[in-house]
Write a structure and sequence with these properties.
The chain is of the alpha/beta class. The chain contains 18 helices and twelve strands. The strands form two sheets. The chain has a seven-stranded mixed beta sheet, sandwiched between helices. β11, α14 and β12 form a beta-alpha-beta unit. α7 crosses α8, α13 packs parallel to α14 and α17 packs across α18. Bound molecules: NADPH dihydro-nicotinamide-adenine-dinucleotide phosphate.
């Protein structure tokens, strides 16, 4: 790493103790930025990096609610409003027991660069809670969401901060959150949240956008080697929103997705995942992947274990951070992997990324490859602002154009900085320069 940046990194890590995921995300970005500071010494003079690593505002709050037995439960809520140089803070809410400040900050930090890469007018933020929706009734989830919004509402707004979904937050949760916001403020402010239902201000393609976008980005990478998804053997991790839609899109392009997972195990379905059955089990019934295997012949269910033991030519990690380590990466490479597109945020450890890059595998980092979700959220905001709603075909075309544009931005930036094919460098520099220029223009704030 560049010596000037090392000193800044050390200060950032020391100021934010115990936040391992935030440290990892910061270090990964800093490793790309040496050459930018050679060209732009003004960024160092204006302390752009130091300012970028310090969120503009961090909110931590108590979320009290009652469960179905009438017992009082207490969770912790977070919203980190990281950077508003390019537009209102924008980023999802994650409800998962592992959530703490370090996770929210890593996600918010990544979101700044991701949102810049989309070319849309959105800043970076992220939030969530250590609440675990799994096993909770609809009524419990509703009471939790209402309590969460009773504090959050005062910090958000269509021109301030626009949350959306992430792990554990889908259409049901966004509905309860929006209802409570409307009730407290007495405003039908559609643009305050994205991922809404289609009949009340949502956008077609938003549910599919992250998974579809990841596949579109990966297809663009494959094209640079004269190939495509057609005929590829694909493994996807996770079986939530991003994973299911990645499976659907990859198969629509002629790939066979032979495996996917949840946090209990994984299925191997050599005939290709039945997307309809997967949606029924995971989205409609909110069941476990094990149930998919019980209802389809020829499917093996492996409890625990790693889905990365299944060989593939293309891998799409779509579950969670640090789910793919150096050993798994080495195994995938040995078994013939040619490309990896990150649907999740930071799913590959730093060791895994190094293995992929050394082996010459096409590697699309999450902040570029999974940006289709937030980009389509920005399209939802556009539709809300103009009180319009677009067709599926039109919106999907916009998503495709945005993903092709992000691929082009990453690839051309990597070329410009003398590292062709290095999408990590391309994404980090491409996103950073846009935000840094805007911060310089807006003065010391
Ligand atoms: P969901 O809650 O819909 O699905 C998450 C999936 O990942 C589930 O199958 C879940 O299994 C699995 N999973 C979660 N945690 C773990 C874990 N610790 N170990 C193994 N499996 C795990 O979330 P999304 O699909 O929305 O999000 C997935 C990833 O994509 C996250 O990294 C998120 O930040 C990222 N992302 C999401 C966007 C969106 O639009 N939703 C946008 C951009 C990125 P189980 O059901 O067993 O918990």
């Amino acid at each position: 790493m560049d010596a000037r940046l090392e000193a800044i990194r050390d200060t950032v890590l020391a100021r934010n103790p115990g936040e391992a995921e935030f440290h990892q995300a910061v270090v990964e970005v800093f490793e790309s930025l040496g050459p930018v500071h050679d060209r732009h010494p003004e960024f160092l003079e204006a302390a752009i990096l130091e300012r970028l690593c310090e969120p503009e505002r961090q909110i931590i709050f108590r979320v009290p609610w009652t469960d179905d037995q009438g017992r009082v439960q207490i969770n912790r809520g977070f919203r980190v409003e990281f950077n508003s140089a390019l537009g209102p803070y924008k980023g999802g809410l994650r409800f998962h027991p592992s959530v703490y400040l370090g996770i929210v900050k890593f996600l918010g930090f990544e979101q700044i660069f991701k949102n810049a890469l989309t070319g849309m007018p959105i800043g970076g933020g992220k939030g969530g809670s250590d609440f675990d929706p799994r096993g909770r009734s609809d009524a419990e989830v509703m009471r939790f969401c209402q309590s969460f919004m009773t504090e959050l509402y005062r910090h958000i707004g269509e021109y301030t901060d626009v949350p959306a979904g992430d792990i554990g937050v889908g259409g049901r949760e966004i509905g309860y959150l929006f209802g409570q916001y409307k009730r407290i403020t007495n405003r039908y402010e559609s643009g305050v949240l994205t991922g809404k239902g289609i009949s009340w201000g949502g956008s077609l393609v938003r549910p599919e956008a992250t998974g579809f976008g990841t596949v579109i980005f990966t297809e663009e990478m494959l094209k640079t080697r004269g190939t495509s998804f057609d005929g590829q053997r694909v493994v996807v991790s996770g079986s939530g929103n991003v994973a299911i839609n990645a499976v659907a899109k990859a198969q629509s392009l002629g790939a066979t997705v032979v495996a996917c997972s949840d946090s209990s195990g994984y299925v191997v379905d050599e005939a290709g995942i039945d997307v309809g059955l997967l949606r029924q089990v995971k989205e409609v019934e909110r069941g476990r992947l094990k149930d998919y295997a019980l209802r389809r012949s020829g499917v093996a269910y492996v409890e625990a274990g790693s889905v990365w033991d299944v060989d593939a030519t293309v891998a799409l990690p779509c579950a969670t951070q640090n789910e793919l380590d150096g050993d798994a990466a080495a195994r995938l490479v040995r078994n013939g992997l040619i490309a990896i597109g990150e649907g999740a945020n930071m799913p590959s450890t730093r060791e895994a990324v190094a293995v992929f890059q050394e082996a010459g595998v096409l590697f699309g980092p999450g902040k570029a490859a999974n940006a289709g979700g937030v980009a389509t959220s920005a399209l939802e905001m556009q539709q809300n602002a103009s009180r319009d709603s677009w067709s599926f075909e039109h919106t999907e075309q916009r998503l495709t154009d945005i993903m092709v544009g992000i691929h082009h931005r990453c690839a051309s930036t990597a070329d410009e900085y003398g590292e062709p094919g290095n999408y990590v460098l391309g994404a980090n520099i491409g996103g950073f320069v846009k935000v840094a220029d805007a911060m310089l223009a807006q003065g010391l704030i």
